[in-house]
User: Fold this.
Amino acid sequence: MDISKERENKKIAIIIPAFKPDFLQQTLESISSQTCKNFRVYIGDDNSPYNLQRIVSPYINQLDIIYHKFEDNMGKQDLTSHWDRCIKLSHEPIIWLFSDDDMMPKDGIARIMEALATYGESKILLRFPLSVIDENNNILFTSTIETKQPISGYQFLLDKLNGKIQSAACEFVFSRDTYEKNSGFVKFPMAWCSDDATWVKFAEYTKQIIVLSGNAVLWRNATNKNISNSSQYNKEKFEATLLFIQWIIKKYANLSTNQELIKALERYLYTIIRHSLKKDVTLQELYKLCKTLFYFNILLSCKVMYKHFFKVKLFHK
Assistant:
């Protein structure tokens, strides 16, 4: 087979919306180490002030890479729309939305190909195990998948709300038809909670999330390098959390008395307010949240207000 034809027949698009230079080389190194090469890499430079192309160039001969620098920085204002425009660069039937600082296991592509041979290339949503690493590649936490059997989107949501798992966009792989038939990603500020809502939505279409057992994808949570451990965007994170809760309430309006979901929401909000936002929430914001909950489940609304009333700030600064 000639090279041009082989390039056209690639199955998997690895999409990297890029901005930060710090760990991009490590990311590309993990991709170049894949045991199966049935993929193409698309790097969408979000008009970064750093010279990302200098980091990418040494891999041009090792990987099938398409590098595109956008003229505007969209990620700061609308990150999910930046993800969307990066995906539009590609055409392959399978999409792996990765990132510019995470790392994939050497057999990642091979395991995806095995799953495609079993389940087909349409209406598919795959999930890797996930390990969280710091800036020095030390593993901080591993989010194990307890079952090898496919799970529902609702079960994934419960596991996430209950804190049984951590999740990140880079651990999921999906078919292009799944992405297009569902109008892409659910949009929240800073893309906070957007991926979780999106996987639940996609799983309703695919009817299941297929587990890719084996070595984990490494998601980097570097100090002061991403949204997760920075307090700079706490207002946006609270707004995104509120929208996520509203999204859940609307989607599962018929489960307003379901104790499994109610307890999961209560536990999730405790984690977000006390740990993710470190109580950097005003009384006005807490009231807004509880008002939203009130129309879903009055008791839940009262519990959340009672638990956090004396822990949050009285007024905006």
User: Anything to note?
Assistant: Confidence is low (pLDDT under 50) at residues 1-6. Strands lie at 12-18, 39-45, 65-69, 94-97, 125-127, 130-133, 139-143, 172-175, 210-211, 217-220. The longest helix spans residues 234-251. The chain is about 40% helix and 15% strand.
